[in-house]
Amino acid sequence: MIGIIGGGIIGVATAYELAKLGEDVVVFEKKYLGSGSTFRCASGIRAQFTDEANIKLMKYSIERWKELSDELEHNVMFQQTGYLFLATSEKEVETFKNNIKLQNKFGVPTKLITPEEAKEIVPPLNTDAFLAGAWNPEDGKASPFHTLYAYKKAGERLGVKFYEYTKVISIEEGWKIKTTRGEFKVDIIVNATNAWAREINAMIGEDVVPIKPFKHQLVKTEPIERGQIEPLVCPPAWNDSYVIQDGEDGGVICGTALEYESSPDDVSPTYEFAKEVLRWAVKIVPPLRHVHIVRQWAGHYARTPDNNPAIGELVENFYVAIGFSGHGFMMAPAVAQALAEKIVKGRTKVPLDWEWFDPWRFERGELRSSAFQIG
Ligand code: FAD
Question: Is Oxidoreductase included in the keywords of this UniProt record (predicted)?
Fold first, then answer.
């Protein structure tokens, strides 16, 4: 029996992948499934990273995203509407060109486009400030709600048991997991608690992944006509601000890099964020100033010192997949498959660089180059 702690997208997808390989799986979630970062994310999926490990992983993950609705027998609303990064200086254009070269090397078809071409993709875009765009039409978005539901239902069909409102309190050698609903004996544990992961690692005396939770927020507008801002649009020099039309209802989700180090249980939105994000959003797409905001919410980026997740075996029969900053949703299909195959078969066909994501790297004083983050 395999016990997964944490019912976000990583835990639920990993449960499904393990069950697909014939394992008995139980998932413990202290609140409701998705209540951590997963249901609070911006829905974006991209292979436009700036290092080999993340580009390869996300290139593969996008291939998995394409299959998910059919495989899980539920529409996860994956759409390849692209990501459009916009450069505001010649220096940034040069950086974009270097990133594009690296992405192309691993088969990601990003290309440099003119502001006029960008405006064809995003009609209400303010092109005045931009010199060029980095455009990958294969990036996209999906519904966090439908995706988690699809993995859960498919997992249940294969026998996975989900225990919601069941908090893990302690872990004893062997493994005995003590929860608010009693004790469970399992052979293997997967810690998928992301922003809360240190608490779980500390329960086995191995608090070696120094994750810090940072509160990140989003606002969402009322629905606007479809086809206006379908890709995620982000000028990194404008405080990593971004806008993207929700794939489900057409409202515009707006984010920016204003963050607060805080407990992952603190999900109160701030007025300071609303002011900051809207300042940038109306610069990127000026007509947004006429659109009403209908929601604002907060979640957490669980950040490691190099903004790359920690994935792998921490001690014998205890695995982690934690610290996903702004990338856990998009990476989940690839990471879940890789981890399940590694646990069950000892190897995986997913191009996941175990050395790069090694949970012990911080103890060894090794840091990777920072994963390219936005928001
Ligand atoms: P979570 O969804 O946080 O799940 C962990 C779960 O563990 C929680 O449900 C929690 O309740 C549970 N738990 C904790 N402690 C215990 C315990 N003791 N016992 C039992 N259960 C426990 N990612 C993208 O890929 N694309 C995006 O566009 C994107 N945008 C984002 C925008 C914002 C504002 C935020 C906040 C995040 C964004 N992310 C994005 C990041 C993404 O949401 C996360 O990386 C991802 O959801 C992590 O999933 P997870 O399953 O690892 O963690």
Answer: yes
The verdict on the CB of residue 195 being under 6 Å from ligand 1 is yes
Q: Report the alpha-carbon distance of residue 133 to residue 161 in Å, rounded.
A: 46
User: Mind listing the pLDDT tens digit for each residue in 91-109?
Assistant: 999 999 999 999 999 999 9
In this predicted model, what pLDDT tens digit does every residue of 223-236 receive, in sequence order? 999 999 999 999 99
Instruction: With cut-offs at 50, 70 and 90, classify the pLDDT of residue 244.
Output: very high
Confidence band for 304, pLDDT divided at 50, 70 and 90: very high
Domains of the chain, each with CATH number or no CATH: 81-137+212-303 (3.30.9.10)
Q: How confident is the model at residue 194 (pLDDT cuts 50, 70, 90)?
A: very high
Residue 201 in contact with ligand 1 by CB distance below 6 A:
no
What is the torsion angle, in degrees rounded to the nearest 10, for the CA atoms of residue 149, residue 154, residue 159 and residue 164?
A: -10
* Interface predicted TM-score of the whole assembly (ipTM), two decimals: 0.99
Among 329, 331, 373, the mutation site with the greatest number of ligand 1 atoms within 8 A of its Cβ is: 329
Q: What size, in residues, is the chain?
A: 375
Helical pair 328-345 and 144-157, crossing angle rounded to 10 deg: 20
CB 31 less than 6 A from any atom of ligand 1: yes
d(CA 48, CA 25): 34
> Sign of torsion, CA 11 17 20 23?
negative
167 CA: nearest ligand 1 atom: 19
Q: Ligand 1 in contact with 264 (CB < 6 A)?
A: no
Ligand 1 proximity of 3 Cβ (cutoff 6 Å): no
